[in-house]
Amino acid sequence: MKTFFIFTLLSLAVANTPKAVLKEYNNSEEYLPENFNVPYMVYLQSSPEPCVGTLIDPQWVLTAAHCSLPTKIRLGVYRPNIKNEKEQICNYSFTVVHPNFDAKLLKNDLMLIKLSYPATINMYVGTIAIAMEPMAFNESCFIPTWTWNNYKNLSDPDILTWINEYSLSPSDCLDT
């Protein structure tokens, strides 16, 4: 049920996202205006691979526990491979890994990161909307992420893209 709640929480972004962005297309850049970003997305620059997090509070980021600890936390990012003047770079003071995290099975794969200071909320950096009720079963969810157009070892991703998933029933979620 915890996974269902987290999935519901993270998938609510669809309600506040421009419809043009939600079109399924391999190269989402054709639909995105220059410097478009998803305000609650957090780029966790780390080695060997970066991770994505979600700003759930001005001082807290939710991400996967299997992610390496970030060397740099970037908020307000459009394309991680390009630095922009609107992004905020933060450090963190500590992390909280789910007490039942299983690295082999990736169960309870959740980690909270406390930023050293609260993010400045503006049109480029914001928190995700929190679900007050569970999503309906099999509802379409668009989950934003970054990927590489041409992967180069140790490079930052260069494309904002979307994954289309469907919500699980509470019983299926418990079995996951």
UniProtKB/TrEMBL annotation:
It comes from Mus musculus (Mouse). This is Serine protease 59. The lineage of its organism: Eukaryota, Metazoa, Chordata, Craniata, Vertebrata. The keyword Signal applies. Residues 39-176 form the Peptidase S1 domain. GO terms for biological process: proteolysis. Residues 1-15 form the signal peptide. The keyword Signal applies. One of its GO terms (molecular function) is serine-type endopeptidase activity.
